[in-house]
Amino acid sequence: MTKPRLGVPDLGIGVGLRVPHYRHILSQRPALDFFEIISENFMVEGGKPIYHLEQVLEHYPLIQHGVSLSIGGPDEPEPSYLARLKQLVRKVKPAWLSDHFCWCGVPGAHLHDLLPLPYTWEAVERVAERARRIQDYLEVPFALENTSSYMTYTSSEMSEWQFISEIAERADIGLMFDVNNVYVSAYNHGFDAREFIRSVPHERIVQIHLAGHTNLGKYIIDTHRGHVIDEVWELYRETIRLSGPVSTLIEWDDEIPEWHVLAAEAEKARAARNEALGLSATPSAGEPAPARAPAAPHGVNHSGRHGGPRELAALEESSLGAAIAE
Amino acid sequence: MPNRASRSGPNAGRSELTELQHWVVRHLQQLRALPRDPALSLEAADRLTGNERVAPVEQIEIYREQFWLRHTSSLVEDFPGLGGILGQADWERLVESYLQAFAPDSWTLRELGRRFPEHVARHPELPHHQLCCDMARLEWAFIELFDAADCPPLDLAKLGTLPPNVLETGQILLNPALRLLEVSYPVADLRMQLLESRRNGHAGAGVQIPDPLAQQLVLYRASDRRLYHRPMSPEAFSLLSALERRLSLVAACEHALQAWPEHAERLQQNVAGWFQAWARCGWIVDVVPGPASEAGPPRS
């Protein structure tokens, strides 16, 4: 473990904890530095989600990542949401917790999407002020993630990297830096991904996300499907060279592969990180990213799947209960 | 810098940012593809930059498509039995009308279907309408049971320490992961068949719509955290329903007797055995001294 940044340790290499892997993880306990959970999937009272969470907690460090805070929405984040989130923080005891630089709806409508904010001073003030208060309330280091986006506003007054840097500095929070999102948004909006990476406050990066995506030609959708592509690996090495060792996580939420494929991707991240840090000359391990055919736009779900399939009642049928004295 | 606010019109008082967000949400919830609306294309160009590959209105259309895809997928996952009863066209119309009538408003997709049973009940034009109503209620109950609070079983040793009249006056607490459901069709069995068919790649083909059959079901999550259903006799169901309303055991028995006088003898013979069995299987989780609820009308 290296020198903490914002009080946050470098946990090494992790992957997102997803339902299809529960059985393998709990029975085989594969070597891995940490898992990340989607907070909302475990903000429930009991049943299988809590049971599985407690089982995994016994053997691995867990980090929480949220998708529903809506920190940039018109209204303050819901107090009941924050109270539940804090309950979960007390159970999980993550070294840090993150959500997104985004908004999810307006009062009376939650769209379950990570909608981009206009990069305006008004939005900077709104998000920074809330982020500072949320970090104080949750009593755990808090970070926000740069989102992938598909639209840009005429009202924007600065670049995305200026926007997120300004908020992070004002609120004194961390950056959850998603390198794939930088690549996706750079492609979609025509900016220079390397300029983005060079321009953010590297000492505030507390975690890095890597993922696959789906290139439809006209634009890229952040599907978290498939392998991390070579260009994103290169951007990741550059990020690590600038930031130093930072906890890194592979997200794979659609067409989730068998565990060994995901584990190989995680090891590829470890090799890339070591290489960027000059710790090893070992070339990246793992399979090369396969050529990707553009998928049809319909059926490509870009954010409803964060966290992969939900663990839910409908995935299992009920059984006829045993005869109970009658 | 202070928030800049719109100065006039229906959105007076909203900041520019907030007004932009309401505009986006309004259009993301549209059922029709946005690029077909020439007026909106102009409006979008005022709000969104677009780029050389994607026009402004196409940018917001990406998010609109995702809104519908995400929420319809979620309902498909949550209500597989209902989807199995309805054909594709009826299902799509139902889901679209639901999302228009009840916009998602919770931070969790788990809550998306909360009012789906109510919406189904309002659409008598659906084929097999009563069966659809029963299935929607059953599937929502399973969603609630799945992650309801965990509760340890009744501590039988504690029973011996309670005042002797506790069963007459105290509250019998049922497991939070238990629901009581009266249905007109054997929907739980039908749901099992539909899911089995889907698992085998047949998407419900060959599964027969059952004849009506009134059932009183106990739906519960057992200690293995799996979901179960169990048809009950009317009098036992009536007793459990009264306990669910926090009546004392004695008051609950009286209600069951009133509701099913023809089964009085069977009820009196079995009630002690039922209580023990329901405690053993975790349906009854506590007995609390103190006043139980006022007697209300029996449910069945």
**How many strands appear in the DSSP assignment of chain B?**
5
Strand order of the largest sheet of chain B: 2-3-4
- Please give the alpha-carbon distance between the first and last residues of chain A: 60 Å
Return the average pLDDT of chain B rounded to an integer.
90
Strand content of chain B: 5-15%
Distance between the termini of chain B: 63 Å
* Computed CA radius of gyration of chain B, to the nearest angstrom: 26 Å
Number of helices of chain A: 9
Helix content, binned percent of chain B: 40-55%
User: What can be said about the biggest beta sheet of chain B?
Assistant: 3 strands, antiparallel
How much beta of chain A, percentage-wise? 15-25%
Low-confidence stretches of chain A: 281-299
Helix/sheet category of chain A: alpha/beta
Mean pLDDT, all residues of chain A: 90
What keyword list fits this structure?
heterodimer, A: 326 residues, alpha/beta, eight-stranded parallel beta barrel, two-stranded antiparallel sheet, 17% strand, B: 300 residues, mainly alpha, three-stranded antiparallel beta sheet, two-stranded antiparallel ribbon, 5 strands, disordered N terminus, disordered C terminus
Description:
The complex is a heterodimer of chains A (326) and B (300). Chain A has 326 residues and is of the alpha/beta class. Helix content of chain A is 34%, strand content 17%. Chain A has helices at residues 22-28, 48-57, 79-92, 121-138, 160-171, 179-189, 193-199, 230-243, 259-277, and strands spanning 13-16, 34-38, 62-65, 97-100, 103-106, 109-115, 142-145, 174-178, 205-211, 214-215, 220-221, 247-251, 319-320. In chain A, the strands form three sheets. Chain A has an eight-stranded parallel barrel, surrounded by five helices. In chain A, strands 5-6 form a two-stranded antiparallel sheet. Chain A has a two-stranded antiparallel sheet with strand order 10-11. In chain A, helix 5 (160-171) links the parallel strand 7 (142-145) and strand 8 (174-178). The N and C termini of chain A lie far apart (60 Å). With 300 residues, chain B is mainly alpha-helical. Chain B is 50% helix and 9% strand. Chain B is built from 13 helices and five strands. Chain B has helices at 16-28, 38-47, 56-78, 80-85, 88-101, 116-121, 129-146, 156-159, 166-169, 187-199, 234-244, 249-259, 264-280, and strands at 171-174, 178-183, 215-221, 227-232, 284-288. Chain B has a three-stranded antiparallel sheet with strand order 2-3-4. In chain B, helix 3 crosses helix 5 and helix 11 (234-244) packs across helix 12. The longest helix of chain B is centred in the first third of the chain and has 23 residues, at 56-78. Chain B is elongated, with a radius of gyration of 26 Å. Classes of the chains: A alpha/beta (326), B mainly alpha (300). At the A-B interface, helix 2, strand 5, strand 6, helix 4 and strand 13 of A face helix 1, helix 3, helix 7, helix 10 and strand 3 of B. Strand 13 (319-320) of chain A pairs parallel with strand 4 (227-232) of chain B, so a sheet runs across the interface.
